[in-house]
Structures are given as C-alpha cells and as structure tokens.
Amino acid sequence: MTRRSLLSIAALLAAGIVVTVSARQQQPPPKAAAPRVEERLEVPPPPFTDGIFPCSGCHKDLKVNRTRRTLTDMHTDIELKHDAEHRWCLDCHDADDRDHLHLASGEKISFDESYKLCGQCHGEKFRDWRAGVHGRRTGEWNGHKKYLLCANCHNPHQPRFKAIEPKPAPQPPARPAK
What we know:
This protein is mostly helical and 178 residues long. Helices cover 25% and strands 6% of the residues.
C-alpha cells in the first residue's frame, strides 16, 4: 500500500469519526426518568379497638423504654406471636411518634399504609395482595381499586389464622329411580 493510499484511508476514517460525532451531537439528550410518584392505595381505616387511637393520647407523657420485655401495665391483652423470638413492639411502632409505624429504613408511615410495613418481610404475599390474588380487592378491572389492609383480616400481633376443621366432602345428589 502506498503512502498516499494510507493517507486517503486515514482521511476517510477521520471524516467518518467527525460525521459520527456530529451526528451524536445533533441527537437530543436522553430524557430524564420521570420522578416516581408514590401510589397511595385506597384502604379502609385500620381495625383499631375503640378508644385506643390515637396512641399519643396515653404515650405523649411516657418516657420511651426500648427494653424488650413483657408488658404488664397496659396492652396486656396483646400476645406477640409474630416472629416473637426476633420482634418486639418498637420494631414496627415508632417510639417517638406512637401515632405512626416505621419501616426498616426509619421512614414513618401511617397505620393506613401498614401494607408497606408488612410487605417488607412478606414480599410474596404483598405482591399477591397488590395483584388481587391474596386478600380482598374491589373496584374496576383496569382502573380504580380498593383494598383491605392486612390487619383487616390478620391480627398483626398474631397473623396466622387458627386451624379450621375441614367439613365432610359433599355427597352427590341421589339418582332418581328408573
């Protein structure tokens, strides 16, 4: 190959690079991702026992005691059977604002958003709940929906349903005599 041929090839390559670079510069920059809007689901109020909410009514003047213990003064009717070996009240209930729960990140959430708290550990059930497979969901097929909170069916302190004795199998109808 002659020197002239090499210079011609180099010039063509350089021109191609310039064309490619200028073509890239003419393209609009990629669009920034739209900010994620947190969807707020329509749910009924949590099933609080009468007179127990807002929690700050009793807790506002109480000093926070983070010691894991059996409660003996109040809430003695609550028996924690929800990963009791590892969990305690303040793992879910916010210590500084008793009218809220908190996620593992520390973010405060209302009791109306308790499904977010449950979903942190029960991701598969949460996915099924959002899809309408677990729990009860009403509304439009491809539009506005209403959900029940986990606590509308499960006691958050003892979420497992009690075993139900199975009923006998149905009997086929009697065949008419011929």
